Predict the structure.
Amino acid sequence: AAAYYDIGATGSAIEELTRVSELDQSDPRPHRLMGLIYNDMESYHAAIDQYREALARSNDFGDRGDVLLELATCLVKIKLFSELDAVLAQCPTSSMVLAYSAESLAARGQSKEALEKLDQALSMDPKNLSALLLKGQLLAEQADLKEALLTLKKAVEYHPFDHGVHYQLSQLYARQGETELAKQHAAESTRLSELREHFSSLHAQASDDSNNAEIRYQLGVTAKQLGLTELAVSWFSAALAINPQHEQAIVELSALTSSEPNK
C-alpha cells in the first residue's frame, strides 16, 4: 500500500489498505492513510469517514493528534461545525486549532470572538494562511478595509501561490476603487485555480494508470508551478521510480534538490 501511495496509484493503495484493515481490525493506520488519500483528492466526506474509523479503533496510537487535526481540516472544508467543536476539544492548543475554532465562531456570527481567536493563532504562527484569510474576510465584512488590506497583503507575501488570497484581494481592491489591482489579482486567482484543477485531473489519471511516468512528471511540473516544492520532488521521484531514464524528471529533481539547504 505504501509503495502504491508513493507512486500515486491511490486506487491500488486503497485496495491494499482495505485488506490490511480486514486482517487487523484494531489497527488505525490503514484508515489514517486512506483518510490522507481522500483528503488529497478533496473527497472530504470519504476522508472524514476514514479518520473517524481510525480514531474509533484506538485511543492511544502515536499519530492520534495528527489525525484529529486532519479530521478537523476536512470538517472545516465542508462546514460541519457541530462535529468540529467536539474534535477541537480533544486537540492540544496550536495555531491551527485556534484558527479552526475561529471558523466555528464566525459561522455562528460571533465575529468579535473569532477575531480574538485569530489574533491568538497569528501570535503563534504569523504565516497561518487559514487565520489570515478569515481575519481579512471578517475585517472586510466590518468595513475595516485598511486593516483587512494589511492582513491580506501579509497573506499574499507569505502565500503567493494561493488562489484564495488573490481572490479576496481582488474583491477588496474593487471595493476601494482600485480597478487595475483588482483585475490583476482576479486574473492571478483564476490562473492558480485553473492550475489546481489541472493538478486534480492529473492526480486522477495517475491513480488510474500506475505505470505512467509522464503523468507523474507533469504532476511534478504543476506542483512546482503552484509553489509546492516538496510535492514536486515527490512526483518527480515517483516518475523516476517508474522510468529511471526520464531525462526531464532527472533535470527537474536535480534542480529542486540541489537548491535545498545543505544539499
In short: The chain is about 75% helix and 0% strand. Residues 167 and 189 are 5 Å apart (CA to CA). The longest helix spans residues 179-208. The chain has a mean pLDDT of 94.
